Amino acid sequence: MIRALSTAATGMNALQTKLDVNANNIANSQTAGFKKGRAEFQDLMYQTVRAPGANTGADSRAPTGLQVGLGVRTVGTSTLQSQGDLKQTGNQFDVAIEGRGFFVIQTPDGEQAYTRDGAFKLDAEGRMVNNDGYPLASEIVVPPDAQTVTIGHDGIVTAQIDGAAEPVELGQIELATFANPGGLMAKGRSLFVETAASGGAIVGPPGTEGLGSVGQGMLELSNVTVVEEMIDLISGQRAYEVNSRVVQAADEMLQQTANLR
């Protein structure tokens, strides 16, 4: 069997994965705090007919080897943690991170998850929660008689209580960072969880431990650039077409061989 058939098939499979990643990036181009993914590839094993430097005579060696590659595989989908654009919303419970860090979310199973989506709201108990109703791990509770809520760049949350002369401090929003943010596992719902690859969370107030600052009344948009994704989509499509033509060419060669008399 001609090796080109299976080799080109591995290329088509890998490019299908690239298309899936591009499609997810484009679909989430308007998702607050979304971080785009990138498919990464690696060549497969080589069939070595003759190794480089093999003896060709008593006092001579081959300057090059004879190796035939067997294709490509997808080795990972990395998440690019670059900063997205910040959008002014005017909502007092929208919070954006400028710089490194993630908001720490308490999930219903008792574990902690991490997100860049700062579109917070209040639940029935006055807690600041995300769109799924999961509260901040910092446990910020806003009293029902609070007139205005202010969130400083250092994450300190204060509220002007009806009848009080001075604002009341409600707590401080803490952020988390990791030695390798790219090693976090995406769980959907704009949430990540730590893994052995990411390392443990380093939690602290904004502006410390290399963490960024927070801004009230703003949201961080997706870091997806639609034009770049469309260019990647077109280049991936063309590469897929070329691989399919390799399959066609190999098939025609096999057909010619089968027709020999």
Question: What is the structural class?
Answer: alpha+beta
Could you tell me the strand content as a percent range? 25-35%
Largest sheet: spatial strand order: 8-7-14-17
Mean pLDDT: 92
How many strand segments?
Answer: 19
| Helix run count | 2
Series of H and E elements: HEEEEEEEEEEEEEEEEEEEH
Work out the radius of gyration.
27 Å
Residue stretches low in confidence (pLDDT < 50, at least 5 long) are none
Shape: elongated
State the helical fraction: 10-25%
Integer count of domains: 2
Summary keywords:
single chain; alpha+beta; 261 residues
Secondary structure: elements and pairs:
Layout: H1 3-27, E1 37-43, E2 46-50, E3 66-69, E4 72-79, E5 86-88, E6 95-98, E7 102-106, E8 112-115, E9 121-122, E10 128-129, E11 146-151, E12 156-161, E13 168-172, E14 175-177, E15 185-188, E16 191-193, E17 202-204, E18 213-216, E19 218-220, H2 226-258
Antiparallel strand pairs: 1-4, 2-3, 5-19, 6-18, 7-8, 7-14, 9-10, 11-12, 12-13, 14-17, 15-16
